[in-house]
Amino acid sequence: MAWVTDRSRPARSLGFGGGAWIAASLLVAGLVLIPVLALLWQAAQGSEGLWSHLAQHVLPHALGQTAILMGGVGVLTAVIGTSAAWLVTAHDFPGRRVLEWALLLPLAVPTYIVAYAYLDLLHPLGPFQTLVRAVLGYDSPRQFRLPDIRSMTGAILLLSLVLYPYVYLPTRAMFMTQAANLVEVARTLGTSRRQVFGRVALPLARPAIAVGVSLALMETLNDIGASEFLGVRSLTISVYTTWVTRSDLPGAAQIALAMLLLVVALVSLERWARRRQRYSVSGQRARSFAREPLPRAQGLAALALGFLPVFFGFLLPALYLAAEAWKRFQFAGLSDRLLAEARNTFVLSALATVAVLACGLVVAYAARVFPQKGMQLVHRAASIGYAMPGTILALGILIASAGLDRWIGQAAGALFGVDPGLVLIGSGLALGYAYLARFLAISIGSVEAGLTRIPRSYDQSARTLGQGVTGMLRHVHLPLSRPALAAAGLLVFVDCMKELPATLLLRPLNFETLATHLYGEAARGTYEEAAIAAWAIVLVGILPVILLARVGPGASRG
Fold first, then answer.
1. pLDDT value at position 9?
2. What is 21-43+51-273+300-551's CATH topology?
3. Residue 544 near residue 497, CB atoms below 8 Å
């Protein structure tokens, strides 16, 4: 196959280096695919007689729990996200501008931190139930207690309150870019303003809603901390316990493959739901339809209603964590252990971010310079890691890394008579590899978005001046893509800090991050010990939300 930079100019005219970019992008895509191949290989080894037990007693229950959880979260996130998007897009009321970006704030809080906060907040001896009993005149939890939040209903509610922004963000963008003439035509045909939502806006927004719901469901499938804390035995928890508790790696790999099939089915269903969705506007700039001013009383009611998911999904747990962190700081200060964990988290996330940005730049730039079908396939292969739950990815990397560590040990023993130990797993390289494969799609997408803003004429001018593939990147694309690279770096860094499943499975011995510290303390029930770590993660998580609020659609409009 002949690689070309456009439909007429051969790649050799770009000078030395074109083949190296292709090879590098193939290498990156191969690194992302290795965990899947490792899972397939391990699953084929059999599980020493335990698979029949897993298939009969573990997998059906885990599949049922996962299906119920994903169904509830899918419906609730669609309702909350779509309603919130229509509220701030179609209506004008006091506080709308603040609410428009505040609805993104739950994205700053990982699901396991929200579960951790509410478990402490709503504990029978916690502040909320203590206050309720005092108001009602009861003395102890034996006399009165609220239903336990450790339930499927609690998990669905809490996960939905955190994940609805995945639906809100694309749906609001779709509502804001719909042409005003569509709404005006519907009004002239006798459709009331309230009916416009159901008959015009909602059908046109279904692709955006489908994308948002699918992202929320993938995050639900990826979750391990919140589900375990809330007593839901999902497929993710089954993979973890099968490997850690039963020491059955092939069985865990087989369950992980079942999860992977579920992810593939989910992505296929989302694409099937959008197969006939087509929407186009005229070449002229589309006008957003005018917002309907609400009377003061209705406006305040709309503000209060729209603020509810922000309050329960971000503000209440964040304020509670801040108060608990301050009390803990006043009592014991910052321990050396916590400072070491913060340093581990920062250094690991920073190094992983650099690697993810570099590999994402390689794939996105190669796809631009060589826009052929083959490179598009490489592009897709390199991006599949984000669609895979962290547990699946970590398990595949664990299998591959353990095999490579054994080979390195055998080679070192034969050649030098020494045993280097677990080179990849013991040094943290396997964990960095997991971050690379998991978040590479974020880097590729952001860099690609930045490159598309650079006209192709710049490439042609650079080639006329004698620049090759690498020269064009250094002198043209990198300087113009710095904002996109910075945004991608921020998103990847924060995601690395928050990542829990892969970190739990692949961290070296006696190596803790803020996320694993929080998980360990919550698992032991010592919630107050993890408040500072949880608050630190929330503070860092706010940064990409600020970025989304600044660059999102309508960020600078009234």
1. 44
2. MetI-like fold (1.10.3720)
3. no
